Automatic annotation (TrEMBL), chain A:
Keywords from the UniProt entry: Coiled coil
Region of interest (Disordered), ranges: 402-423, 457-480
The organism's place on the tree of life at top rank: Bacteria
Low complexity: compositionally biased ranges: 466-478
Signal sequence residues: none
Name of the protein: Rad50/SbcC-type AAA domain-containing protein
Coiled-coil portions: 277-345
Organism: Sphaerisporangium flaviroseum
UniProtKB/TrEMBL annotation, chain B:
Upper classification of the organism: Bacteria, Bacillati, Actinomycetota, Actinomycetes, Streptosporangiales
Domain of life: Bacteria
Organism: Sphaerisporangium flaviroseum
Protein name: GPP34 family phosphoprotein
């Protein structure tokens, strides 16, 4: 087969027509057809010729009429054919094996056995030779228990072209071999699935045995002239197109198959989109219903002091109170430290004042006494010496006496009024102590305030903590908070879904599928018209040939026949109309 | 606060007269009776300066004194009730106002007493005499005698100057643990304190109040005393 994909000539016209019919740009048409494997096939395949030249087989079969099944006899058949029309007939008895001879020939040519099982089990050796165009070929095999094992041989060179073993394998080997030799492609088919329009069609490929069904006509296949007894998959039409040579036929089938697939996908996508929308609506409805229920539940709950809305405030209050309490504690610690330091100083001053007073008292006491001896040598102080002290001179060493040591006025024991320096120091110390005392009292007041503040802050913090604790553990508040959270959650879910599905408001994008379906449908229709136009001319010729052939074979009453492009044959005979099978039964 | 800096609560050195007051009461209350020998009009005597120094140490350091009383009770030298005296010394008699830490000398607590003794001697209240062989320069002892005028003035002091009478009373507490002991024994007992023994020469001997307080509490509880 050849193909013409150029934009010129019949192909270009076809593409333009498809574009016009589908209302799609030409480029889009090309892309869609290419992506779906639809190609314009305007020329006819070259005819091939198959001629059987020899058939041979032998084997063992039960003796006819024998009482036991173990009684066997050999049989053998050999027939060399030449060009011409041949007839196989039997004399005096039926069931002599006429059909078996034809079935054995067919078995070897197409790989698929139509033999009766018992006959196949009788066979031992089988050989069929034939020419395919100009090539001499042979199929030779041995049969064991009905199962073939053998090879396809090129007779001129003796080359083994293919080998097979078993029924299925033989069929596969002959399928590949013959399609290759005849340059045929598997027949593409598509059939609507029975479950519905959105289910992908059953597509398939019919291979060599389907083609080979056109090689013979038997009684069983009379119902349909072509197609091996099966009208499924439009096979008779395809075979008719093939063997009569209809251009555009394969293009039409390819477009048809692709269109069915795309249409199914499109329907499925539309169904899915519809289902999605329905599911989405159902989900939104369910969420809305749950939200209403949750709101109603919340409405029914008693109001509490600590609603969930204020929980945040309580956390905030606790945080603030905690910070304030910490601050107050810090202030308290500082005040206490300062207070303690002042108090330590005050105590020091108390000690100093005490020591100074004690020293002054001791000094005054001893000063009130009269010296009697020298402290160094115990020599008695004489009266004249003592008298010197009245003049301010030491009675012992003649040094000038400090005013406090003057004896003009002897102080009383327990008094310290005689020592102005000491008294001045003590007065200073007292003043300092008074200041310290004042400072301590001041800081003590601050400390007291700080203590109160800290205690209040601690109480506020505890109160805030208790309120929060209550808010988080109180059953009524907990129930209300949970209800509020449920409402909030559902509101969020609803909003989120509505927002998300807004983008999906339109169904899934089926535009590409729609475009492809339109293009493929148009391609199928255009190819179909071209194929039918071409086929009509051929069929008219064939109808005349069939009528002439029928009359030649003695059907004098035959007026005319009409073989349709759907492989249906209608016969007009003696003014009446008859079904094709009856006519052909006669012809057969 | 800076204005008061440098005035420690404890550690201010006592004046000459303050020391003279303590020594007068130590001689009056803790001196041995002077039955025979000694100078004319002598009524009491403390033999050896070492003993005088050690007694003064106990007078000036109430925490050490309280500790000595506790030890004496624990050793059976004093009845358990005396623990109350230890508590009075340590806690109730304003020890912080009367504590004067001493420096560590070569032979233990030591502070020159000459000037204070001169005050007493000059006024004819005491007499100091050398004892032992005068040719023996290595072992030379001084004995401190309280004379009758001294005894009289001690009496005057305790009755007329209540503020100073504290030392008179404190001498009685010291007497609980020190009466009859010689200086060497007193020194030995003081050396048992790590704080005392470990203080380098010329440095202040630190107090032990914080250590004695729990010891006293434990002893009181052990003896069932309130």
């Amino acid at each position: 087969m050849s193909q013409d994909e150029s934009a010129e000539g019949p192909v270009g016209e076809w593409l333009a027509e498809v574009a016009k019919r589908s209302r799609q740009p030409l480029d889009a048409v090309r892309d869609i057809l290419t992506s779906h494997g639809v190609r314009a096939r305007t020329t006819l395949p070259r005819p091939h010729r198959v001629l059987v030249t020899e058939v041979f087989f032998d084997g063992l079969r039960p003796v006819p009429g024998a009482e036991t099944a173990t009684s066997l006899e050999n049989f053998s058949f050999s027939w060399a054919l030449e060009s011409g029309v041949w007839c196989v007939a039997s004399m005096g008895k039926n069931e002599a094996g006429k059909s078996s001879i034809l079935e054995i020939i067919l078995w070897c040519l197409r790989g698929r056995s139509g033999l009766q099982a018992d006959v196949r089990h009788w066979l031992r050796r089988v050989r069929v030779r034939f020419t395919l165009d100009d090539e001499h070929l042979g199929v030779e095999m041995t049969v064991v228990n009905g199962l073939p094992q053998g090879e396809v041989v090129a007779l001129d060179s003796g080359t083994v072209l293919a080998q097979f073993n078993g029924l299925k394998n033989f069929e596969q080997v002959m399928d590949a071999f013959m399609l290759d030799r005849l340059n045929l492609e598997p027949l593409r088919t598509a059939q609507d699935a029975k479950k519905g329009p959105d289910i992908a069609p059953i597509t398939g490929e019919l291979s060599w045995p389907a083609y080979a069904s056109a090689l013979h006509i038997n009684r069983a296949s009379l119902k349909a002239v072509l197609g091996g007894g099966s009208v499924e998959h439009g096979l008779p039409t395809r075979l008719l197109e093939l063997f009569l040579g209809a251009p555009w036929a394969s293009t039409k089938v390819a477009a048809q198959v692709a269109h069915k697939i795309v249409a199914a996908n499109l329907t499925a996508a539309q169904t899915r989109a519809a289902n999605d929308a329905a599911a989405r609506q159902a989900q939104l409805a369910e969420l809305s219903q749950r939200l209403i229920s949750a709101r109603n539940r919340l409405q029914a709950l008693p109001q509490t002091n600590e609603a969930a809305a204020t929980l945040q405030e309580l956390y905030g209050a606790l945080t603030t109170a905690t910070q304030e309490a910490a601050q107050a504690q810090g202030e308290l610690a500082r005040a206490r430290g300062e207070h303690d330091e002042w108090e330590r100083q005050r105590r020091s001053l108390v000690v100093a004042v005490h020591a100074a007073e004690e020293a002054a008292l001791a000094r005054a006491f001893f000063h009130s006494l009269t010296p009697t001896v020298c402290p160094r040598c115990d020599t008695a102080v004489r009266k004249e010496q003592w008298e010197r002290e009245k003049d301010g001179t030491c009675s012992l060493c003649a040094s000038e006496l400090h005013p406090s040591h003057e004896v003009t006025s002897k102080p009383q024991p327990g008094s310290r009024e005689d020592d102005p320096d000491a008294q001045s120091e003590i007065d200073d110390l007292h003043l300092t102590l008074a200041s310290a005392q004042e400072a301590v009292e001041e800081i003590a007041a601050r400390l007291s305030r700080a203590q109160r503040t800290a205690a209040q802050a601690a109480a506020r913090r505890e109160d805030a903590a208790n309120r929060l604790q209550t808010a988080t553990t109180d059953p009524a508040a907990t129930a209300r908070r949970e209800a509020e959270l449920e409402v909030a959650r559902l509101e969020g879910a609803l909003a989120e879904r509505q927002g998300r599905f807004d983008d999906l408001g339109t169904p899934v994008d089926v535009a590409p599928l729609t475009r492809a379906a339109a293009v493929l449908k148009a391609a199928e229709a255009s190819a179909h018209e071209r194929r039918t136009a071409a086929l009509k001319q051929i069929l008219d010729d064939i109808n005349r040939d069939i009528t002439a052939m029928g009359r030649d074979l003695g059907l004098d009453m035959l007026e005319r026949v009409e073989l349709t492009s759907g492989a249906q044959l209608t016969v007009w005979k003696g003014g009446g109309q008859k079904q094709n099978n009856q006519v052909f039964e006669h012809m057969a | 606060m800076e204005a008061f800096a440098g005035r420690g609560a404890i550690g201010t050195e006592p004046t000459r007269e303050q020391t003279a007051v303590r020594l007068l009461f130590i001689l009056d209350r803790l001196g041995d009776t002077c039955d025979e020998g000694g100078p004319l009009a002598a009524v009491r005597v403390v033999r050896a300066q070492r003993k005088l120094q050690k007694l003064d140490f106990l007078m000036r350091n109430p925490d050490y004194l309280a500790d000595e009383i506790i030890t004496a009770v624990e050793q059976g030298r004093l009845p358990p009730e005396r623990l109350r005296a230890a508590r009075e010394v340590l806690e109730q008699r304003e020890p912080e106002l009367h504590t004067y830490r001493m420096l560590r000398g070569q032979h233990g607590a030591y502070e020159p007493l000459h000037n204070a003794l001169s005050v007493l001697r000059h006024l004819g209240l005491i007499k100091i005499e050398r004892a032992g062989s005068t040719s023996d320069t290595h072992v030379r002892r001084r004995d401190y005698y309280l004379l009758e005028p001294g005894q009289l003035q001690a009496q005057q002091l305790r009755s007329r100057v209540p503020a100073l009478a504290w030392y008179d009373e404190q001498a009685l507490y010291v007497g609980l643990v020190a009466k009859g002991l010689i200086g060497a024994a007193l020194k030995a007992s003081q050396y048992e304190h790590e704080e005392y023994a470990a203080t380098p020469s010329g440095r202040v001997i630190a107090g032990i109040t914080e250590r004695v307080r729990p010891r006293l509490a434990a002893a009181l509880e052990r003896e069932g005393l309130e």
